[in-house]
Automatic annotation (TrEMBL):
Keywords: FAD, Flavoprotein, Glycoprotein, Oxidoreductase. This is Pyridine nucleotide-disulfide oxidoreductase domain-containing protein 1. Its cofactor is FAD. The gene is PYROXD1. GO terms for molecular function: L-amino-acid oxidase activity; NAD(P)H oxidase H2O2-forming activity. Probable FAD-dependent oxidoreductase; involved in the cellular oxidative stress response. Required for normal sarcomere structure and muscle fiber integrity.
Length: 498
């Protein structure tokens, strides 16, 4: 084995968190080499970054060969190999190709992977990176029916985008989109699921795939050993999400249930049970038995069984900590992430973490919470580099402003969606009050108030309220005197508070 190479700053992971961290370190320490060690052949770069308000930001995510990053920052060196072991006592990482690297400061940004309802079943797919998205697309192309399990971001995007395939959507909750919405917002969105999509979709950002030829020939269980970076905004724009049939949307939602059991065709035949046909929504008739034979069957906790071609488990993520744990006593969060303090430091000296892999364990601002999103991956990667620099140069550092207020802008069902602060009254107790304004098919505005102060908001549609509400949440002004005028559409709220 060759002698271990030494590098003062080592970052693990070529996703948004790792690349942002490496770029910032390269800018802070122009005469040092920054080593970026990543399992995937491509890295994620943030482009067209736009600060759209004090805390809301938008950017594109571009998948690029690592040479492009090295060209932009000549002091970044990318090693394409997975870290298989961390030897914390020796300040050393060992990669799959047998090489060892000694660091002074290490930042772990290895992301997360899908938390599947069942591991190792070839009919249960998760979506995380370009490979798994392409595998999903290949399965979909020949599918007449699929089951989507989960009620978060991926499920919301899929059920809206998929055409030409029946979708059975199984959710634990009463209403759709529980990670972002309450029942009112869900009600507002539902008509979009049954409506025909417009011929030309509203222009939106795309994830660009700069590299070619990384398609897998074989379909089957995703190769988690070659975990790529998480997909970026509008990841599905580059995919053809069409099944084997010629119709637009066909989504049936099964609420308040989970998956009890999954059977392959042979196992199901032995069971001598009846599976159900795709329900006909407009007729309130009893579910009919299904004549067709399917490759896989899903039994739900409400007793219903549906056959389908395959299942998408869009049931959240689990931080990718495994390669770093052996022999290292990291403090871990309840969600399995590596705990970091307010300076992004883990419980082990000189090791930092950022992005989906970490669990924020500082006392957060009353209107911020961690969610595994690309905005937070970028902010954490950037801030981790600043903290590493401050520690190295023995300088003080304050918590970055981006952690003052949770702010996320995205798109669901082709509506612009902005969520701010404690948008679902998370952790606020029972003494909070909700105010709503809704115009069907146009906009949905909800604010969460506590003791006369605005604590959070959900804005669906082109409301133009995000900046004003962001300021009201940040400055915690007492708004009791304004009462319901706060959402009165005849009052120009922006002028009010200028
Ligand atoms: C389908 C999908 C859609 C999404 N849409 C949105 C959205 O619209 N908006 C939003 O805000 N967020 C979205 N997210 C979430 C967002 O993409 C992630 O939160 C974010 O990209 C995480 O970045 P990261 O750098 O922490 O991790 P990742 O992007 O997962 O990067 C991890 C990196 O570490 C590397 N790695 C892993 N293990 C090792 C190892 N042992 N050694 C070396 N390298 C390793 C991987 O190859 C990868 O390069 C979406 C996620 C998915 C899956
Ligand atoms: N536009 C955006 O901002 C998007 C963001 N993303 C991000 O990508 C990541 C992955 O997305 P996704 O997989 O949708 O994760 P999410 O965390 O968004 O949602 C997971 C969903 O699955 C549910 N769930 C968890 N376990 C089970 C189970 N065993 N059976 C049934 N349901 C279950 C959760 O319910 P409960 O909450 O009750 O546990 C939740 O509704 C997330 O970090 C997400 O935020 C993804 C797509 C779009």
């Amino acid at each position: 084995m060759a002698a271990a190479a030494r590098c003062r700053f080592v970052v693990v992971g070529g996703g948004i968190a790792g690349v942002t961290c490496a770029e910032q370190l390269a800018a802070e320490f122009t005469s040092e080499d920054i080593l970026l060690v990543t399992a995937a052949p491509v890295i994620k770069a943030v482009t067209n970054f736009k600060q759209i308000s004090r805390t809301l930001e938008e950017f594109d995510v571009e998948e690029q060969p690592s040479t492009m990053l090295e060209k932009r920052y000549p002091n970044i060196k990318v090693v394409e190999s997975a870290v298989k072991r961390l030897k914390n006592e020796e300040h050393k990482i060992v990669t799959d190709d047998g090489n060892e690297y000694i660091y002074e400061k290490l930042c772990l940004c290895a992301g997360a992977k899908p938390k599947l309802i069942i591991e190792g079943n070839p009919y249960v797919l998760g979506i995380r990176d370009t490979d798994s998205a392409q595998e999903f697309q290949k399965h979909l192309a020949n599918a007449k029916r699929l089951t989507v399990v989960g009620n978060g971001g991926i499920a919301l995007e899929l059920v809206y985008e998929i055409e030409g395939c029946e979708v059975i959507w199984a959710i634990k909750d009463k209403a759709i989109g529980n990670t972002f919405f309450d029942a009112g917002a869900a009600e507002f969105l539902i008509p979009k699921l049954t409506a025909e999509k417009p011929e030309t979709a509203i222009a939106c950002k795309r994830t660009k795939y700069t590299t070619e030829g990384n398609e897998k020939e074989e379909m089957g269980v995703a190769d988690t050993a070659k975990l790529g970076s998480a997909l970026g905004p509008d990841w599905h724009e580059g995919l053809h999400l069409k099944g084997a049939k010629e119709f637009s949307h066909k989504v049936h939602i099964e609420t308040l249930c989970e998956v009890k059991k999954i059977y392959l065709q042979e196992g199901f035949k032995e069971l001598e049970q009846v599976s159900l046909a795709f329900p006909k929504h407009k007729q309130k008739e009893k579910s009919q038995p299904d004549e067709e034979l399917w490759p896989v069957y899903v039994e739900l906790t409400n007793g219903k069984i549906y056959g389908c071609d395959f299942i998408v488990s869009a049931t959240g993520v689990v931080p990718n900590v495994k390669p770093f744990l052996d022999g290292n006593n990291f403090a871990l969060g309840e969600d399995g992430g590596i705990k970091v303090d307010k300076h992004m430091q883990t419980s082990l000296l000189n090791i930092y973490a950022a992005g989906d892999i970490c669990t924020a364990s500082w006392e957060p601002s009353p209107v911020w919470q961690q969610m595994r999103l690309w905005t937070q991956a970028r902010q954490m990667g950037w801030y981790a580099a600043k903290c590493i620099a401050a520690d190295t140069l023995k300088q003080p550092i304050d918590m970055d402003f981006s952690f003052e207020l949770f702010a996320h802008v995205t798109k669901f069902f082709n509506y612009k969606v902005v969520v701010l602060g404690k948008y679902n009254a998370q952790g606020l107790g029972l003494d909070c009050e909700l105010m709503l304004r809704c115009t069907k098919g146009h906009e949905y505005v909800k604010v969460v108030m506590q003791n006369g102060r605005m604590m959070g908001a959900v804005l669906i549609g082109e409301t133009n309220l995000e900046e004003t509400f962001e300021n009201l949440i940040l400055n915690q002004m007492d708004l009791s005197a304004y009462g319901e005028d706060l959402l009165n559409p005849d009052i120009d709220i922006e002028d009010y508070f200028d």
